[in-house]
Amino acid sequence: MSLPPIAIRSGLSAEPFARTYGEEGVVQAPDFLEAASAEAIGALLPGLPYVIVAPDPGGETLVINDEVVRRFGEQQVRSFLEDTIRRASAGFAFIHRSYALQDEYARAPDHPAARITEFLQSRAFLDFGAAVIGAPVDGVRVQASHYRKGDFLTLHDDSHGRDRRLAAFTLGFTRGWRPDWGGQLLFHDEHGDVRRGFAPRFNVLTIFRVPQRHSVAPVAAYATQPRLSLTGWLIGRD
Predict the structure, then answer these.
(1) pTM
(2) What's the number of domains the chain is made of?
């Protein structure tokens, strides 16, 4: 399938979102994209060739694709993922499916998903993000994420030693999500309480200041659909 031109909803001003972001460090912009753009992306995301991502004991992200399964065998891959779940009980870990938009763009610039990458790297998106956070934005790091039953992202604050991350963002493409299905983006205070949470939704842009403690709740075993989103960071110049 091909995608129509992707555009921010006509007339959408960053000004009210900038005020909320400045006061609270997090803001949501509903109906962020033009309806046709959102519908086209929403139809494309479920069928992307995702891979499983999870951290090794040293914190480096490992990519598990069909080649890895063939090379190491299903049992070894299963053991690694079980070990990741054990490590999640005491520290940072995650398991979910991912499509690395920028890496795949370099390999397949004619793939329909490349239009998503071009939009997220466009001045239109970067300038909207800059207006919300009140700082110049030079680029993004972004992926498409697909959370299945049991997938999760434990507590962390998005600190990073290489990229100059100014803020994190998610652009959701999930409809009909029940609140008891998990998968919420949760913000945590210093006492371990959840101070705020956002359910997966469709065509809603969330921008939040980093570093900031947050997690993604595990998706329930009885959820009947995946949690789909575009996630990444607004990057400043070094």
Answers:
(1) 0.96
(2) 1
